[in-house]
Amino acid sequence: MKGFTREESSWMYYDWANSAYSIIITTAVFPIFYKAAATNAGVDAADSTAYLGYTIAIFTFILAMLGPILGTIADYQGYKKKFFTFFFALGVSATALLAFVPSDNWLLLLIVYTFAALGSTGANVFYDAFLVDVTSEEKMDRVSARGYGLGYIGSTIPFLLAIAIILLAQKEILPISATVASKIAFLITAIWWGLFSIPLFKNVHQRYYIEREPNPVANSFKRLETTFKEIKKYRAVFLFLVAYFFYIDGVGTVISMSTAYGTDLGINATNLLIVLFVTQVVAAPFAILYGRLAQKFTGKKMLYVGIFVYIIVCVYAYFLKTTLDFWILAMLVATSQGGIQALSRSYFAKLVPKQNANEFFGFYNIFGKFAAIMGPLLVGVTAQITGKSNTGVFSLVILFIIGFIILTRVPEPSEAK
Predict the structure, then answer these.
(1) I need a surface site. Which of 313, 335, 359, 384 has the fewest CB within 10 A?
(2) Integer CA distances (angstroms), 161 to 7, 116, 188, 249, 281, in order
(3) What residue stretch is flagged as signal peptide (predicted)?
(4) Least confident of 25-39, 190-204, 307-321
């Protein structure tokens, strides 16, 4: 890839690989598949959306608890890739297993989905931490944003293939049911994810680490304890994490529950899939644009822009009624979802000490994942109380406002060191 080293390119291609999971499993095909299974089982639409939210809350809580501990252990030489490999294998295997779960068993679907999500999000903790190993601080914004851009571009290929199989099955052009077509989509995701992860395994290695010592687990807990005691030393890091906790909550909730929300509004599966496909296409150049603009205006200012766009998204979602409204909402999300995530990752990577990157990305994970518990729970509870999903989405505005205010107090990385 022109302008990037082999290590940078190999690292970025994991975004290309894993984004197939993000769009097909997290956002598009699986939620529709699950909602149909729950509806056929007699589960109310608002309740099934709430159960999906509760499931997301459960697996994010599990990973949030494990993140800092595993991250601290992974800072030892040679451990980072081992942890990455474990979660990667768990995620790919569980994603493939979704294809073999009976389509009328919505509860088992959620259980297997939990393991797939644990694998995907767990692998991302160590993948994100590899950013400090593959590039310099000066290029982190570009590399991180380009990774997200590649992810959006790459995910459109298996997503388009999945959509084509599902639509052809629905029109009875292919001699399979829509259910079987969806299961094929799950297998496509697992294969794509595994295949394009090979460059990372071959070319990305842990450059910054702590030398191995006896009793690594016990010593990792001691290092965690030391970090907490010296928290004032890392004031900029933890202030950023608090801001991140709030605004990324809203971002993650919008992404993970958008399809279920659209279904509740009466938008059919075909339109949802098409909207999500176009969203991926539009998001790719905007993610890269965020990285370039960050070099000109700073990453922090571009994070402000992303948060402001999401505030508009939440307000607009409250008044959502038609398919056209959902299209407009999706395009607004597309302009900023990749950019805000990419620049959050690179901004944090610049703040943390490189040899302790896994430990700190463990905290990055725990703040992000605990936030991901609060958002879906908020939407789920509000949806059940009011009977309207749009009220829950609107309530996320407060999270973006709080995150914005706290972010203003975080110094630039150059000033924090």
Answers:
(1) 384
(2) 29, 21, 9, 31, 14
(3) none
(4) 25-39
